[in-house]
Design goal:
heterotrimer, A alpha/beta (210), B alpha/beta (446), C alpha/beta (332), A: 210 residues, Rossmann fold, three-stranded antiparallel beta sheet, 24% helix, C: 332 residues, alpha/beta, 2 domains, four-stranded parallel beta sheet, 12 helices
């Protein structure tokens, strides 16, 4: 049943906005130049946590929703930092966007990530979507649609670890870990310890086919 | 027209010999005699010459289902398969249960001219299984019916079967039984076994055939009559027939080419081209049938050629018609199943596909050894022809429901002669009209 | 197998787990304010029902609509099919209408198989004769996993390689290794039993069929399950007992003497239910013959999963439709 077999490895990589090929956990690190070290990633997430606190006046009514796969641990880390700084608990969840993607018919059907919304829901909340890479903007558009089906937030913001440019939709991020100028065909790999066993952001020249 | 000289044919697989044909009969055989003046010469180097094949079991569908086959298309297919005589089954519309219908079929056969058509008469009125048809009238008709069968249906009533067996003794007839216990096979679709269980198709148990054959053998013995068992399909049936023959009872039997080669596994894809009655069985049954044919327990190969229009097969399995075409592939299948496996030599093939079926059908003009004086009914076959994929579209039969489609089969029928006149040359049927009045001599058919 | 779901045998263990895990994720959709996903927008799903089965048709219809597919219901009654149109012509009609998937229920075994040869879209078998009903088996497997995982219910001391208790409350990721399932009733005519034996054994369950010998298929010995005739002997070892509907007309065909005798030997009543281990569940694919194969108090007991099975039917069918239609056409 080929049609029932999704892409192997990480279901959303490759289809994700990063333009990066699937990197199964525990597999060798993809080739590429490191553009963010573990320390730089840590500092970037810390800065994002501070900015969220500033922009939302202490995190009142904020929930973080990570976009699977790697947005989810990033969201948890940011929530953890906010907790450390201010002693407030920011509800954290995940929002799978697969069923809302606009490119479903371009690839075989893929397995679904999890959607886990904090118990109080999203109504009236300030929802911060967290993802690893912002590229075309299509994943974020799908996320906005998915969120719309879950309820009516007061506002929605976007945090990304890397903004690599080349937007195809009128979207921008509210919080950016690093702006990374790239060529269209280059590939950005974000590795996070929770999924990949290490923290790193790599830039590789990419193949012509992708 | 001064006849034919067939050069270097291996008669029934023997050493190369020439065959002279003159005046519808074999004038002379032997090595190297010179050509008679004016005879057409046919180089038969490497070919096997067999007495013209005789099919005891053919559905020509006319009258009634001319969309599936006509006497003309069916007999052309038969000639291309190497046959010089076929027995046309009675389950036409109307049923061949009166002298009028059997004479009509017989006449159509004569007009077509490709081979002798011997109508089979129904045992019971309308194949209804309750009242004997006018067997004597059919026997006395111009068609001279000797074989009677309700084929397609079983004469299930024991008393009626006994009476039929007895009654036909008066004119040396034989009852050809389609052995199928109707209650055990209600709605049956496929051999009852592992495959039917897996596919969820209602099973057709071997016992439903074997029980009827056993009963019929006992009845035939009791009344001293001739029983012929149609399309034996199970290894168990072979055992029962072997036992009956060992008693000296007058029991004969046939097997189809498809039961010699194919198994129920083919139903896997639910393609009804593999739906047939009796159904394809297991590999063990195929082995039993081959052994039975090889040792003579089973007397002959009969095609059960059962043409159906496309729509009868392009449907879900349960709704599809039973049956397969077989005339044009029979000899090639027998080569694959029996000769190439070493179970039967060409003399054996001549016996099982010509001599014995002619004897069972009471046909004196066919099934004779190819010796001087015999009617020149013969088939030239090239067993060394490279295996060729069976293409239903190339068949002369009106129907395309061959289960061998897409399968490579060895051999090739090169020529068929009916009373000295070629009906097939170089693998191609000659125009029937050209044969009119030459191959044709109704009374000579017997 | 490529783009169709015709037999449970078409599914590898990974395929089956993917469907169950996708269904587990989609189960959450039913709890959301908007119970609809845009995934199959613009796709057409045809429900082609040659046999009446309102519950199965509604389940597929709900599944397709929750994924925003356009649904066309085509029932044989009163249509050209009733006037003798062949399955092939019907298939060509659907093809011309641009069906992306055809859900077919038919009284002939193999009808889905045949249809798949004549249409380009995906074919989902919703029951073909006495052959198979794979989505029923999937929803049954889903229900078993969900209930046993929720109850933390695989008994101690048994060697269960992938313990459902570790899988979390919805059983996600777990197969059914070591789960003992007893299926009782008309297996011979039962497409549900056939699909369940194939799927549950693929998922590692140990399946036992219990029925009068007349209602077991010939050569059932070659199936990946064991066979018993004594229900009372099997119940104490069962984690799951699945009762199949027995049609009364089978009695007239001499499959069993009387309803009373069938009920005595193979019916599940409160007394028999007490033989089951405490964690065991009772399933029935429906529609039930209360008082025949299953007593009313059993059907309504807390062990019964009948209502769960109906709810899970929609999510499992959503998962199947999504996985068949949600992506690009399979390359092979």
């Amino acid at each position: 049943m080929c049609a029932l077999r999704p892409q192997t490895g990480h279901h959303d990589t490759g289809s994700h906005d990063t333009g990066s090929p699937p990197v199964p956990p525990g597999k060798p690190v993809p080739p590429g130049k490191e553009v963010l070290s573990p320390d730089e990633i840590r500092r970037a997430l810390t800065r994002i946590a501070h900015e969220i606190l500033e922009r939302t006046h202490g995190g009142e009514g904020v929930i973080l929703l990570g976009i699977p796969t790697r947005g989810v641990p990033l969201a948890r880390r940011v929530a953890g930092r906010i907790g450390e700084f201010e002693g407030v608990t920011i509800p954290c969840g995940s929002l799978d966007v697969t069923m809302h993607r606009d490119d479903l018919r371009l690839r075989p059907a893929r397995a679904l990530g999890r959607t886990e919304v904090p118990p109080d829901g999203v109504d009236g909340k300030t929802v911060v979507l967290v993802d690893d890479v912002l590229f075309s903007g299509r994943t974020v558009r799908a996320a906005l649609d998915a969120l719309n089906d879950l309820g009516r937030p007061r506002s929605v913001q976007l945090a990304v670890l890397v903004d690599r440019g080349h937007r195809e939709l009128p979207l921008r991020a509210d919080y950016v870990g690093k702006n990374l100028p790239t060529a269209q065909r280059e590939v950005v790999h974000v590795l996070v310890t929770e999924v990949d066993g290490q923290d790193s952001v790599l830039l590789s020249p990419g193949g012509g086919s992708r | 027209m001064s006849g034919w000289l067939i050069r270097g044919a291996r008669i029934a697989g023997g050493p190369p010999a020439d065959i002279h044909i003159a005046g519808g009969a074999i004038a002379q055989t032997g090595a190297g005699p010179g050509a008679a003046a004016g005879a057409q010469v046919l180089d038969a180097d490497g070919l096997v010459a067999l007495p013209g094949l005789v099919d005891l079991h053919t559905h020509l569908r006319e009258p009634g289902r001319e969309d599936a086959e006509t006497v003309e298309t069916g007999t052309r297919a038969a000639a291309l398969g190497g046959f010089t005589a076929v027995h046309a089954m009675a389950n036409t519309e109307p049923v061949a249960d009166t002298a009028g219908v059997v004479e009509q079929v017989w006449r159509l056969g004569n007009q077509a001219g490709y081979c002798d058509v011997r109508p089979v008469g129904a045992v019971t009125v309308g194949l209804g299984g309750t009242q004997l048809a006018e067997l004597g009238a059919m026997a006395d008709s111009a068609a001279g019916v000797r074989v009677f069968s309700d084929d397609g249906k079983c004469v299930a009533d024991s008393l009626l079967m006994r009476r039929a067996l007895e009654y036909v003794k008066a004119f040396d007839g034989v009852i050809a039984q389609h052995a199928q216990d109707p209650r055990l096979t209600e709605g049956a679709q496929l051999n009852e076994g592992e495959v039917s269980g897996r596919l969820g198709l209602a099973g057709w148990p071997a016992a439903a055939e074997e029980a009827v054959i056993a009963r019929d053998c006992l009845l035939a013995a009791h009344v001293g009559s001739a029983l012929h068992v149609c399309h034996v399909s199970t290894a168990g049936s072979v055992e029962i027939i072997r036992w009956a023959k060992s008693k000296g009872w007058r029991v004969t039997a046939e097997v189809t080419p498809h039961h010699l080669l194919l198994t129920d596994e083919l139903a896997e894809g639910y393609d009804p081209v593999y739906k047939v009655n009796p159904p394809l069985r297991t590999q063990a049954d195929v082995a039993g049938l081959r052994a039975g044919l090889a040792d003579g327990t089973i007397d002959c190969v009969a095609t059960d050629h059962a043409p159906h229009p496309v729509e009868a097969k392009e449907t879900e399995w349960a709704a599809a018609a039973h049956g397969m075409t077989g005339l044009e592939t029979a000899l090639r299948v027998v080569q694959a199943a029996m000769v190439d496996t070493g179970l039967l030599d060409w003399a054996g093939v001549a016996d099982r596909m010509s001599v014995r079926p002619a004897r069972i059908g009471r046909l004196t003009g066919h099934g004779n050894p190819l010796v001087a004086g015999a009617p020149a009914n013969l088939t030239l076959y090239d067993p060394g022809a490279p295996p060729e994929i069976v293409d239903p579209a190339a068949h002369a039969s009106k129907s395309r429901n061959t289960p061998f489609a897409g399968m490579p089969l060895p051999g090739r029928v090169v020529a068929t002669f009916l009373r000295g006149v070629p009906t097939v040359l170089d693998g191609k049927a000659l125009d029937g009209k050209a044969l009119d009045g030459k191959a044709l001599d109704g009374k000579a058919a017997r | 197998m490529k783009r169709h779901l015709i037999s449970a045998a078409d599914l590898t263990r990974d395929d089956a787990l993917l469907i169950l895990d996708t269904a587990a994720e989609l189960a959450g959709v039913a709890a959301r304010p908007i119970k609809k996903l845009p995934t199959l927008r613009g796709r057409t799903v045809v429900n082609l029902f040659f046999e009446d089965s309102t519950r199965t048709r509604i389940s597929f219809e709900a599944a397709a609509k929750r994924l925003s597919a356009d649904v066309i219901n085509f029932s044989a009654k009163g249509s050209s099919v009733a006037k003798g149109e062949s399955l092939k012509d019907t298939a060509l009609t659907l093809e011309a209408m641009g069906a992306d998937a055809v859900v077919i229920r038919h009284s002939a075994s193999g009808a889905a198989h045949r249809l798949a040869e004549w249409v380009r879209g995906s074919v989902v078998n919703a029951g073909d004769g006495t052959h198979e009903h794979p989505t029923q088996a999937l929803l049954d497997a889903f229900t078993i996993r969900q209930r046993l995982a929720r109850q933390g219910a695989v008994p101690d001391g048994r060697d269960v390689p992938h313990d459902l208790r570790d899988a979390g409350p919805d059983g996600r990721g777990a197969a059914l290794d070591g789960v003992r399932v007893t299926i009782v009733g008309d297996v011979l005519h039962g497409r549900v039993a056939r699909s369940n034996v194939l799927l549950l054994s693929t998922l590692g369950a140990e399946v036992t069929l219990v029925a009068p010998p007349t209602l077991l298929p010939f050569a059932v010995g070659s199936w990946p399950c064991s066979v018993g005739y004594d229900l009372d002997a099997e119940l104490p070892k069962s984690d799951v007992v699945m009762m199949l509907r027995v049609q009364q007309e089978r009695m007239t065909a001499a499959y069993f003497p009387t309803i009373r005798e069938y009920r005595r030997r193979y019916g599940l009543d409160a007394g028999r239910m007490a033989l089951l281990p405490g964690h065991a569940i009772v399933m029935h694919p429906g529609p039930m013959n209360r008082g025949m194969e299953i007593a009313a108090d059993v059907a309504d007991s807390p062990r019964s999963t009948v209502v769960d099975q109906v709810a899970n039917g929609v999510t499992v069918r959503m998962a199947v439709l999504y996985l068949l239609l949600g992506g690009a056409e399979a390359a092979s």
